[in-house]
Description:
Layout: E1 2-7, E2 13-21, E3 28-32, E4 45-46, E5 51-59, E6 63-70, E7 73-75, E8 82-86, E9 91-97
Antiparallel strand pairs: 1-2, 2-5, 3-6, 4-5, 6-7, 6-9, 8-9
Amino acid sequence: MSVKKQFIKTKPVCKVTFTVEAKEANTAAVVGDFNNWNSKEGELSKLKNGTFKGVFEVNKDASYEFKYVIDGAFVNEVEADSYIWNEFAGAENSVLEV
């Protein structure tokens, strides 16, 4: 799993690439504050090598809680900027800072 950030000088956004290695999975998505925790909006595309990948634009100068949904299971990003306890979920969420 990985998160890559590409800041755009001409816009107040950051392009964030989420990559998940889940060769055995059928579906993967990224859900979080930036897409209202909507897995349809966060669908990742499966590449030939079995990796799932997606690029999303998020507003700069912000912090977002997020998780991956891999075949229905919620998974944290191991390379997240940090983690925060979420009372609603009863678990830690990954944090993306841009």
